[in-house]
Amino acid sequence: MICKYLFLTFILHIDLYDASQMVQVDRPRGVSLTKKVLYDPAKEFTCFDGSQTIQFQFVNDDYCDCNDGSDEPGTSACPNGSFHCTNAGYRPQNIPSSRVNDGICDCCDGTDEWKTPTACANTCMELRRAALEENKKKMEESSKGFALRQEYAKTGQAKKLERQEKVKELQQELAQIQLLEDTLKTEKEAIEIQETAAIDEHKRIAEEKQQKIAHEENLRKGAEAFSEMDVDKDGSLTIPELLSHPELDPDTSDGIFTEEEALTILQAGSVDMAVFMDTVWGAINETFRTNIPPPMEEQEAPAETDTSNSGEPYDEITQNLVNQANEARSKFQEAQTKKKNLENEVESLNKALELDFGPDEGYQALQFQCFELLTMEYKYKLCPYDKATQSPKNGGSETVLGRWGSWSGPPENIYAKMMYENGITCWNGPARSTEVVIRCGMEHKLLSVDEPSRCAYKYEFATPCACTQVDPNALPRDEL
Questions:
Q1: Is 69 in the same domain as 166?
Q2: What's 382's domain CATH number?
Q3: Are residues 233 and 343 in the same domain?
Q4: CA 335 and chain centroid, separation
Q5: Number of Cβ atoms within 10 Å of the Cβ of 1
Q6: Mean pLDDT in the chain?
Q7: What pLDDT is stored for residue 308 in this prediction?
Q8: Does residue 420 lie within any of the structural domains?
Q9: CA separation for the pair 339, 322 (Å, rounded)
Q10: CB 108 within 8 A of CB 125
Q11: 192/74 same-domain check
């Protein structure tokens, strides 16, 4: 670092001498060193466009002979000509010929106003001094930024290695959990087969029991119905006795329960209880209504409620199998959940490993951070490797101006630009996109935002991650 500053100081001193001491290379006025060979006083001059050849004495004679203006590099005779400012001690410059001798000093050495040589002060040394100081400042900033970049790179590389090791570790866990999941699945399916068989048997027995109870209840109700309708208690149900229950009328439209209709139900003049239960009760059990009021205790007794558990009660053996199956399902589900979480973590790490954080992993310092810029109307935000957004300064919904796409700089430095694509679609227009121009800076900072074309935004972002190693030769050069 000390050697670099000594070099800068040495360059600053040897370059800041009086411009009058510099030896100019002999050439026609307004001609650059690179084109000097084209202007040979010993030869005729050929226009650059090849339109004609003239005697050299007509070069810079204040008359335009060439269509391209190449014969008048030092005058304003040709409207399309170009004048070269030597600007000894500073940067050379080309200006339109129309500015030559127009009373305005365009060249820092004043050579464009050669008709009035005292009209322009030579400011090239001052400009050089300022350029050197500015260049020195930029070099110092770039040097410090590069030091920060190296720290970011070191951290980024360590983070990448850590992620790679973590992926290996998780993949080993995944292999183990997969084996466990397979084992638990086999155990679960085996116990579920026993559980299903036990539950099916339990249901079969329960249904048979319920059917038996229902059958016995139906017989009881049938016997009670026969006893009620057998008014004379002779053990035989007759047509007149059946007619005492008009609710049994199969045709309710006429409101008359006839003997013919009663005969159709009994299928005989009278039936005993056995025949009644076999042939008659099944046809009338849904419509029969008793005329005998229930006992007082039954009238006053509250309706029974089911106090059993919501789950179906099983016998001890069946319940034990259900419990075992539930435990097996729970363990299998836990293994599945753990496996899914591991897979998600591996996927997240692999996505991070696939991201391009630059040749030295330094740009990883920008991930999971957001940087804002406030303007008169909006708050702009850049979240590297995620999205670019815009929202009203005084509050309101956020508009996505683009999501991370890729590095989009030129081939010689793709890391000079970022592209964010597929943002919110403009009304009656394309999807919004944002180009982020990256430059060296001492801190991560969103510098400016512009919208050069409709729905296409341009951010300028500074970061030490873009700083490169200082080149001490990157100084202004003279053209003598």
A1: no
A2: 2.70.130.10
A3: yes
A4: 30
A5: 9
A6: 89
A7: 37
A8: yes
A9: 26
A10: no
A11: no
pTM (predicted TM-score): 0.61
430-440 in b/e form (b: 16+ CB < 10 A) is eebbbbbbbeb
Is residue 299 assigned to a domain? no
pLDDT by residue (tens digit) across 411-443? 999 999 999 999 999 988 899 999 999 999 999
Order of strands across the sheet that contains 433-440 = 371-374, 378-383, 387-392, 399-407, 417-421, 433-440, 456-463, 445-453
Q: Show Cβ contacts of residue 282 under 8 Å, excluding neighbours closer than 6 positions.
A: none
CA distance 312 to 130: 92
Q: Are residues 200 and 332 in the same domain?
A: yes
Q: Assess contact for 384 and 367: CB atoms under 8 A.
A: yes
What phi and psi values does residue 298 have, to the nearest 5 degrees? -75, -35
Alpha carbon distances (Å) from 365 to 19, 260, 418, 453: 48, 100, 15, 31
Residues 106/85, Cβ–Cβ less than 8 Å? yes
* Burial readout 288-319 (b: 16 or more C-beta within 10 A, e: otherwise): beeeeeeeeeeeeeeeeeeeeeeeeebeeebe
Total tally of structural domains belonging to the chain: 3
The DSSP 8-state label assigned to residue 425 in this structure reads B
Q: Is residue 10 pLDDT above 70, yes or no?
A: no
From the number of C-beta atoms within 10 Å of its C-beta (0-12, 13-18, 19+), residue 329 rates as middle
> Do the strands 270-272 and 371-374 form a parallel or antiparallel pair, or are they unpaired?
unpaired
- pLDDT band for 471, please (50, 70, 90 cuts): low
Cβ 79 vs Cβ 91: under 8 Å: no
* Contact call for residues 455 and 388 (beta carbons, < 8 A): no
Q: How far is CA 330 from CA 126, 232, 312, 324, 334, in A?
A: 82, 67, 20, 10, 6
Q: Do 348 and 377 reside in the same domain of the chain?
A: no
What is the span of the domain harbouring residue 11?
Answer: 2-122
- Which residues fall within 8 angstroms of residue 417, CB to CB, at 6 or more apart? 407, 408, 409, 435, 436, 437, 438
pLDDT confidence band for 272 (50 / 70 / 90): very high
Same domain assignment for residues 404 and 458: yes
E-state strands within 39-179: 45-46, 53-54, 82-85, 93-96
Which DSSP letter does residue 295 get?
P
